[in-house]
C-alpha cells in the first residue's frame, strides 16, 4: 500500500521562480518524487532573498530551502546532457516547465516539443500570459500581472489621494503554483498524457479580483468606482494593529452595539455598510485607540464580529492559535522557521518535509539508475528505469478529469464555492445545497432591492461562482431535511463545507457521522482558522485571514496602517482545498479509504506569505510594506499617464518593473538614453535600488506626458515589463484574454447573458467549452435530485408544503 497519495509518481521540474517551485513543492508534499533539473550555476532562487540578505557563496537562500524540501537536484548542461534529460522524461509521469535558464531554454525542450516527444507525460507549462495569443512572448513580472489583471485596483483598496497599491509579497506567483499543482493532479485523474497551458494573468484574475466583468455586465456598474479605506478595517489600538471587519449588515449592527453606539443602527439607510461605517470613522478609530488588541479581539469574538491581529514575520509564529495548532515547523535542513503544510488530512497522509537538496546532489544517482546502453531515450519503455509503484498507474480515459464524481457542496460566500466551482468546471456533478432561510451569502450581496422580483437570483457573484452546478434547498434545522441530506451523502464521493466548526457539529454532521453514511467519503472542511485552537470558532472573511497571515502587513504605504487586500484569502483557500481533495481522492483510488481533509483558510494564507517568517527567522529581517516597490525589481512602481479614467478623474496609471540589467538597458533605449539614466551606478540592481527616488521622478515625468497604450507599446518593444493598471471590470478589453477565450458568455433564465471567467489553464484533451449550464436558481433541481433518491412527485410536493424544500427566499 502506498505510504502517500502520490508515492511512485515522478515529476521532472524544469521551472525556475516561485510559481513552479511552489507547484512542485505541493506535489512533493503529496508524495511525488520531484527531480529538479538545474543548470550548472543552479536555480536563481538559490541565491535570492526578499530582504537582500547576504546568502554567501555555496549556500542556499532560505526561500529556496523551503520550496525545495523533499526534492532531488540534478544538474544538466543544456548543451551536453540532452540525452540524459530525455531519459529522465521517458521515466517520468509529469513535467513542470517555465521559461528560465538551463534546459528549459534549450532547443527541443519547450513544453510543446516535450509533449510531442513524450506523449505519455502530463506537461504543465507556467507562463505569464499562456503559450499562445498575441502577448505570449511579452515580458511580465508578478507586479505587472497584478496590474493587467485589475488586481491592483482590486476592490478599491487604498486612499484616493495616492496611487493604488499592489497586494504585497509575491502572492500571484504562489497562486499560479497552486493552480498548476491542481491542474496536474486533475490531469492525473484521467491518465495524464496532455499539455496543460497555465496563464499567470488568468490565475491573478481569479485570485485578486471578485468577478468584476460578470458584475459589470449584469448590473451595469462596477463593484467599486473609487478607492476608499475600509472602516474600521486595520486600525491602531493601544499596543498594536488589529483588523476588525463588517462583511454583513448584521456584523455592522453588532459593531455598533459593541462600541456602545446603537444609535448608529439604521436598518432603512440607503447607504452601504461601508458608507455607514465611514460616516462614523473618527469615533470608531478613537474607540479602537483606547483599547488593547486583546481587549478588542475578546469583545469582537463575543459579538461574532470578524477580527484578527495583524501578523508579520516577527510575531506570527508566536501567536497563540498557531502555537497550539503547530502551524509552523523547523526547516529540516537549515533550522529556520517555516509554515507547515497548507492542509491536513487523514488517513491519507502528506509526506513530512525532508531537507532540500544541495546543487546536483542526486545527479550521479539518477544517471546510474537511468543508464541503459543503446536504448533510445525517447522510447517509452525507458520508464522502467525508475522504480515504479506497486499499485497500477491511472489508466487513460476519455471525458473530463472529474467526470463521474459527485460532490455535495455545502459551502457559501467565496472560499468554499470557488473550490467546488473548479470541480464542477472539471466535470464533477456538484450539487450545491442551500436552504430558503439560509441561502448562499453571495445571493444577498448584489445590492438588489428586495422589492424586485426574484431579487435573490440577480447576484453576479453567485452566478460567477456556481455555473455547471445543480442546486437544491434543504431545511437542515428539520429532521427530515437532515435525513434527506444523509441520503444524498450516501450517493456522493466528496462533501465540502466551509462553516465555522460549531455549525456542522451542532447538526451532528461530523466526519465520523458522514463516514458512517458513506465509508469511503472524502469530506473537506474549510473553516477559517481550523478545526481546533483558540480561534477555531471565529468568523473568517478574506480580510481577517489576510491580516492574520501577514499578507496585509506588506500591503500599503510605510507611513500608513496596512491596507486590507480583501481579495486573496478566499480564492487562495479554494485552490488549496482543491489540491487537498484531489490528493485524498488519489488515496481513495489506491486504498478504497475515504479521508477527512482540513483545508483551513489561514493555513493556505500562511503558505503564500511564507517569506515573512522565513526571512525573519533565517536572517532577522522584518519585511516591510513599501507602496508599489518590491524586492524583485528596481525601478518598480506605478506612474500616472496623461489620461483621465472613465469616471473623469486624472487617475490612470502604468506599472513598470525592471528585474534584470538587460531590461534596464532596454528601458534606457526606450527613453532615448537620457543623460540622467547613463550613470554606471544604474547598470546594477543595487545601484538602481539606491537611486529609486531619482528614477521615480524621471519616470513619472516621462509617463505623465504619454498615454498608457503608447507607454506599453514603447516599453514592450524594448523588452521591459510594463502594464496598464486596469479597472478590473475592463478585463474583457485585453486582447490576450480574448484570443485565449478566457471569458465565455453564459445565458441565464432570469438575467441577461453575461461573460464569465473560466479555468486559468487550457487542457489539450479538453474541455473546449467550460461553462455548460448557468448557476442554478434557488432550489432549481430539487425535484430532479430527490427523484434520483427515489422520492415520487407526491412526496416532493409534501416536502415543499412543509417548508423542507423551496424555490423562494423564506421571509
From TrEMBL:
It is an enzyme of class 2 (transferase). The keyword Transferase applies. Residues 387-398 have a biased composition (Basic and acidic residues). Residues 348-398 are annotated as: Disordered. Keywords: Transferase. SUPFAM superfamilies: CoA-transferase family III (CaiB/BaiF) (SSF89796). InterPro entries: CoA-transferase_III_domain, CoA-Trfase_fam_III, CoA-Trfase_III_dom3_sf, CoA-Trfase_III_dom_1_sf. The keyword NAD does not apply. Its EC number is 2.8.3.15. GO terms for molecular function: succinyl-CoA:(R)-benzylsuccinate CoA-transferase activity. This is Succinyl-CoA:(R)-benzylsuccinate CoA-transferase subunit BbsF. It comes from Mycolicibacterium chubuense.
